[in-house]
Specification:
Number of domains: 2
Shape: globular
Structural class: alpha+beta
Helix content: 25-40%
Number of strands: 14
């Protein structure tokens, strides 16, 4: 069992770290979030970009953040229109080699060109290299729901890097399949399994929050049984290379409201994947961390 708890801890480290960032000029733009090891545990980090560099900091302890209403491209900091790409990228970045790689990974191989790639990528070699990396398919549980997804096997250049994708999803447990699959084969197989077994490809924030409040959980043995059935039905095309569960601890049983505006305040008391709970004067507020992407950080206090 892997531990991924982050709950109330001293904020001296974070205050010191943020003070080191104070020399930067202009906006910091939230570029993403991740779960990273710190002090022997995996913790939620908020990632930022600025014209002078990029970085991240752990989201534990007490916070006050104020974010811009204006959305910015999280790569080049240009202003985005009110109706912007869900990826929080400008049109120039979406069409760049990096953007094309990202869109193929998130939206499906060939999507930037409105075609489907089947082993013969139509983009240049520097872009298509991503497609040939080994990808894994994971079967994961979140509360009472089983979902399926795809990740690079060595995400971030790390052996077992797919685990960080699972942490970002906030899953309770997962079984991971590998078959030396390039991206387009992994996505094709993912879709086939999803359709034949009626397993969703994604869960949105509201579905995850409802599962957290309901408190149900699929037994690991049931998840593994489903994974073995899929493996057998695929006749040796994939093998199970990893199976485990995560210990997220116990979170709030209820909350007062969802943070949807431009401010975050309170003491972070629980987090799981992209969902974070803050305690402010005894009231519990919940945040979809993914909604911060592309927001300018106007000011913060810890």
């Amino acid at each position: 069992m892997l531990k991924a708890n982050i709950f109330h801890q001293d904020t001296i480290f974070q205050t010191s770290y943020l003070n080191q960032l104070s020399y930067l000029d202009g906006y910091f733009v939230v570029s993403g979030f991740s779960w990273r090891p710190l002090f022997g545990e995996h913790m939620l980090f908020l990632e930022w970009n600025s014209p002078d560099g990029s970085g991240c900091f752990p989201m534990f302890g007490e916070h006050y953040f104020k974010f811009s209403r204006q959305l910015y491209c999280r790569w080049c900091f240009s202003k985005l229109a009110k109706i912007a790409s869900s990826l929080k990228l400008c049109s120039k970045c979406l069409c760049s080699p990096r953007g094309i790689k990202f869109r193929c990974s998130v939206e499906g191989c060939g999507s930037p060109f409105n075609v489907t790639c089947y082993g013969e990528p139509i983009c240049e070699d520097s872009i298509s290299k991503l497609c040939y990396d080994n990808h894994v398919i994971y079967l994961a549980s979140f509360g009472s729901i089983i979902k399926i997804g795809v990740s690079r096997e060595k995400r971030g250049g790390l052996d077992g890097g797919f685990i960080y994708r699972l942490l970002e999803q906030g899953v309770d447990a997962a079984v991971v399949f590998s078959g030396n699959l390039p991206l387009w084969e992994a996505q094709e197989l993912e879709l086939k399994i999803s359709e034949e077994y009626s397993i969703p490809l994604s869960l949105n924030f509201e579905e995850k929050l409802e599962e957290l409040m309901n408190g149900g959980k699929i037994p690991f043995d049931k998840l593994l049984k489903t994974a073995l059935e899929i493996k057998n039905d695929l006749n040796g095309k994939v093998d199970i290379i990893w199976k485990n569960s995560f210990d997220w601890g116990s979170g709030p049983q209820d909350f007062n409201d969802i943070l949807r505006g431009t401010e975050i305040f309170g003491d972070l008391v629980y987090a799981k994947g992209n969902i974070a709970f803050f305690d402010f004067c005894g009231e519990i507020y919940v945040l979809n961390v993914r909604n911060l992407l592309g927001r300018g950080i106007v000011c913060w206090e810890v």
